[in-house]
Amino acid sequence: xxxxxxxxxCGLTAPDHVRAAVEAGARYLGFNFFPKSPRYVTAEQAxxxxxxxxxxxxxxxxxxxxxxxxxxxxxxxxxxDMLQLHGGESIKRVSEIKSRYGLPVMxxxxxxxxxxxxxxxxxxxxxxxxxxxxxxxxxxxxxxGNGLAFDWRLMAGRKYWRKPWMLAGGLTPDNVAEAIRTxxxxxxDVASGVESAPGIKDEAxxxxxxxxxx
Length: 214
Ligand SMILES: O=C(O)c1ccccc1NCC(=O)[C@H](O)[C@H](O)COP(=O)(O)O
What we know:
alpha/beta; two-stranded antiparallel sheet; 8-stranded parallel β-sheet; 21% strand; binds ligand LARABZUK; 214 residues; 10 strands
């Protein structure tokens, strides 16, 4: 693994912000297919947004408990490199999705306390990557993208898992360096921390975030 931290900018909705993320050095771009999200895009919009994304930058489809019908439509319309499963998908469902679509799968594990980290091992048999995110508050409309961090100290000394993993949840240009130091993360993911308003990415914040990981 190179010394550089890999950054995923998630919930892109505008061509200028896709370009800004690529130019700043993002390694993954996330497109959100959860209809209630302020970052929601249709498959047709995502196809246009990613037209100029260079090879080497992974295009990730974020879905929440998606049916095969929804996944069929997304994957037939857009050449994604990875599927991010951000709902309550079971180990069996993750495995089904992986074999049906032949794409690498990143399973999201929500963390509020130390026991939540046990799910990382359980899903490591089937997922290609793990995204360790803050567990959403009870009754939250969004299962992710809430700008909330969990206690990173829960991960101190726990940085070795069987699959590559990414840290998310409440990361910002101001705290991402500390999050990396505390958790040992080599990959980080951000949505609201690089926005000027919900769903509106900010080019200067994207650039500042990626700079702060270096
Ligand atoms: O961003 C959303 O609106 C969203 C909706 C439904 C499921 C997941 C969602 N976002 C997940 C992410 O991509 C985020 O990177 C991750 O949860 C961290 O979000 P944030 O704390 O806002 O950086």
